[in-house]
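re: ur question from earlier - yeah i can do the single chain one, its not a big deal. heres the input i used so u can compare w yours
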Amino acid sequence: MSKLIGLEIRAFPATRVIGKQVICSLDEGAENPGPALWEGMFKDGTLEFLLNLPQRSTPDRDNVGWMGGYDPTSNSYKYIAGILAEPGTPVPDGYAYFDIPACLMAIASIQGTDAGHDVYIGAHDHLARAIEERGYEYDPDAGGFEMEYHSHTRFSIPVERGDEFVVLDYYSPCRKRA
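and the output i got, formated as C-alpha coordinates:
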Protein backbone atom coordinates (compact mmCIF):
# COMPACT_ATOMS: atom_id res chain seq x y z
CA MET A 1 0.00 0.00 0.00
CA SER A 2 1.45 3.37 -0.98
CA LYS A 3 1.95 6.08 1.60
CA LEU A 4 2.65 9.80 1.69
CA ILE A 5 6.14 10.46 3.04
CA GLY A 6 6.40 14.19 2.34
CA LEU A 7 4.61 17.27 1.04
CA GLU A 8 6.06 20.54 -0.17
CA ILE A 9 4.13 23.57 -1.40
CA ARG A 10 6.27 26.00 -3.36
CA ALA A 11 6.39 28.49 -6.20
CA PHE A 12 6.88 26.62 -9.46
CA PRO A 13 8.37 28.41 -12.48
CA ALA A 14 6.79 28.38 -15.93
CA THR A 15 7.98 25.33 -17.81
CA ARG A 16 7.15 23.26 -20.90
CA VAL A 17 6.33 19.56 -20.90
CA ILE A 18 7.50 17.85 -24.11
CA GLY A 19 6.86 14.21 -24.95
CA LYS A 20 4.64 11.66 -26.64
CA GLN A 21 0.90 11.76 -26.06
CA VAL A 22 -1.92 9.25 -25.74
CA ILE A 23 -5.59 9.68 -24.88
CA CYS A 24 -6.74 7.87 -21.73
CA SER A 25 -10.38 6.94 -21.17
CA LEU A 26 -11.90 7.17 -17.72
CA ASP A 27 -14.65 4.72 -18.66
CA GLU A 28 -14.87 1.66 -16.43
CA GLY A 29 -12.87 -1.23 -17.85
CA ALA A 30 -10.94 0.94 -20.34
CA GLU A 31 -7.33 -0.09 -20.85
CA ASN A 32 -4.68 2.43 -19.78
CA PRO A 33 -2.35 3.13 -22.75
CA GLY A 34 0.22 4.89 -20.53
CA PRO A 35 2.38 1.88 -19.59
CA ALA A 36 2.68 0.80 -23.24
CA LEU A 37 3.63 4.35 -24.22
CA TRP A 38 6.46 4.40 -21.67
CA GLU A 39 7.63 0.94 -22.69
CA GLY A 40 7.77 1.97 -26.35
CA MET A 41 9.62 5.19 -25.53
CA PHE A 42 12.28 3.29 -23.57
CA LYS A 43 12.70 0.73 -26.37
CA ASP A 44 12.77 3.05 -29.40
CA GLY A 45 15.07 5.71 -27.91
CA THR A 46 12.40 8.42 -27.69
CA LEU A 47 12.96 9.01 -23.98
CA GLU A 48 16.72 9.10 -24.42
CA PHE A 49 16.30 11.69 -27.20
CA LEU A 50 14.16 13.87 -24.90
CA LEU A 51 16.55 13.51 -21.97
CA ASN A 52 19.34 14.83 -24.18
CA LEU A 53 17.53 18.00 -25.26
CA PRO A 54 19.80 20.91 -24.25
CA GLN A 55 16.81 22.87 -22.89
CA ARG A 56 15.79 20.12 -20.43
CA SER A 57 15.13 21.93 -17.16
CA THR A 58 15.56 19.17 -14.57
CA PRO A 59 18.84 18.80 -12.73
CA ASP A 60 19.05 15.08 -13.40
CA ARG A 61 17.63 12.59 -15.93
CA ASP A 62 14.13 13.00 -14.50
CA ASN A 63 10.98 12.42 -16.55
CA VAL A 64 7.30 13.17 -16.13
CA GLY A 65 3.84 11.87 -16.90
CA TRP A 66 1.58 14.90 -17.44
CA MET A 67 -2.20 14.40 -17.25
CA GLY A 68 -4.67 17.08 -18.33
CA GLY A 69 -7.00 18.34 -21.01
CA TYR A 70 -10.04 16.48 -19.70
CA ASP A 71 -12.73 16.11 -22.38
CA PRO A 72 -16.19 15.57 -20.82
CA THR A 73 -17.75 14.50 -24.13
CA SER A 74 -15.47 11.45 -24.36
CA ASN A 75 -14.70 11.15 -20.61
CA SER A 76 -11.00 11.15 -21.44
CA TYR A 77 -7.81 13.09 -20.81
CA LYS A 78 -4.43 13.57 -22.46
CA TYR A 79 -1.34 11.87 -21.05
CA ILE A 80 2.09 13.13 -22.10
CA ALA A 81 5.11 10.99 -21.21
CA GLY A 82 8.23 13.11 -21.44
CA ILE A 83 10.43 15.71 -19.81
CA LEU A 84 10.31 19.23 -18.42
CA ALA A 85 12.01 21.88 -20.55
CA GLU A 86 12.61 25.60 -20.45
CA PRO A 87 9.64 27.76 -21.53
CA GLY A 88 9.56 28.29 -25.29
CA THR A 89 11.73 25.26 -26.08
CA PRO A 90 11.11 24.25 -29.70
CA VAL A 91 8.96 21.12 -29.89
CA PRO A 92 10.40 18.45 -32.20
CA ASP A 93 8.14 17.20 -35.01
CA GLY A 94 5.84 14.42 -33.86
CA TYR A 95 5.93 15.43 -30.18
CA ALA A 96 3.24 16.99 -27.99
CA TYR A 97 3.68 19.71 -25.41
CA PHE A 98 1.92 21.64 -22.67
CA ASP A 99 3.02 24.95 -21.20
CA ILE A 100 2.72 25.03 -17.43
CA PRO A 101 2.34 28.60 -16.16
CA ALA A 102 4.19 29.83 -13.10
CA CYS A 103 2.03 28.72 -10.19
CA LEU A 104 1.93 27.49 -6.63
CA MET A 105 2.63 23.74 -6.75
CA ALA A 106 1.92 20.99 -4.24
CA ILE A 107 4.50 18.21 -4.48
CA ALA A 108 3.68 14.99 -2.68
CA SER A 109 6.37 12.34 -2.21
CA ILE A 110 4.72 8.94 -2.29
CA GLN A 111 6.41 5.66 -1.43
CA GLY A 112 5.05 2.49 -2.96
CA THR A 113 5.73 -0.29 -5.43
CA ASP A 114 6.27 0.33 -9.12
CA ALA A 115 5.85 -3.32 -10.10
CA GLY A 116 2.22 -3.43 -8.97
CA HIS A 117 1.57 0.22 -9.89
CA ASP A 118 0.68 0.78 -6.22
CA VAL A 119 2.69 4.02 -6.14
CA TYR A 120 0.46 5.54 -8.85
CA ILE A 121 -2.97 4.35 -7.75
CA GLY A 122 -3.35 6.47 -4.63
CA ALA A 123 -1.14 9.40 -5.64
CA HIS A 124 -3.93 11.90 -6.31
CA ASP A 125 -5.81 10.98 -3.14
CA HIS A 126 -2.69 11.19 -0.94
CA LEU A 127 -1.92 14.66 -2.30
CA ALA A 128 -5.52 15.92 -2.12
CA ARG A 129 -5.87 14.90 1.55
CA ALA A 130 -2.50 16.39 2.49
CA ILE A 131 -3.12 19.81 0.90
CA GLU A 132 -6.62 20.01 2.36
CA GLU A 133 -5.20 19.37 5.85
CA ARG A 134 -2.82 22.29 5.29
CA GLY A 135 -5.54 24.70 4.11
CA TYR A 136 -4.96 24.42 0.34
CA GLU A 137 -7.04 23.22 -2.59
CA TYR A 138 -6.51 22.27 -6.24
CA ASP A 139 -6.10 25.32 -8.51
CA PRO A 140 -7.87 24.70 -11.84
CA ASP A 141 -6.79 28.14 -13.08
CA ALA A 142 -3.21 26.88 -13.47
CA GLY A 143 -4.06 24.75 -16.49
CA GLY A 144 -6.16 21.80 -15.34
CA PHE A 145 -3.45 19.16 -14.93
CA GLU A 146 -1.56 16.93 -12.52
CA MET A 147 1.80 15.32 -13.09
CA GLU A 148 3.83 12.28 -12.06
CA TYR A 149 7.47 13.21 -11.55
CA HIS A 150 9.92 10.32 -11.83
CA SER A 151 13.12 11.42 -10.10
CA HIS A 152 16.13 9.65 -11.56
CA THR A 153 17.66 9.04 -8.13
CA ARG A 154 14.50 8.25 -6.11
CA PHE A 155 12.45 6.45 -8.78
CA SER A 156 14.34 5.35 -11.91
CA ILE A 157 17.51 4.00 -10.28
CA PRO A 158 15.56 2.00 -7.65
CA VAL A 159 13.38 0.52 -10.44
CA GLU A 160 16.50 -0.46 -12.42
CA ARG A 161 18.02 -2.06 -9.29
CA GLY A 162 14.83 -4.04 -8.73
CA ASP A 163 14.06 -2.39 -5.39
CA GLU A 164 10.63 -3.22 -4.02
CA PHE A 165 9.82 0.38 -3.07
CA VAL A 166 10.27 3.60 -5.03
CA VAL A 167 9.37 7.24 -4.41
CA LEU A 168 7.12 9.01 -6.90
CA ASP A 169 6.68 12.75 -6.68
CA TYR A 170 3.19 13.87 -7.64
CA TYR A 171 2.62 17.49 -8.69
CA SER A 172 -0.63 19.43 -8.55
CA PRO A 173 -1.19 23.18 -8.83
CA CYS A 174 -2.79 24.54 -5.67
CA ARG A 175 -3.99 27.69 -3.96
CA LYS A 176 -4.73 28.73 -0.39
CA ARG A 177 -8.33 27.85 0.42
CA ALA A 178 -10.51 30.93 0.87
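The longest helix spans residues 34-44. not sure if urs matches, ping me
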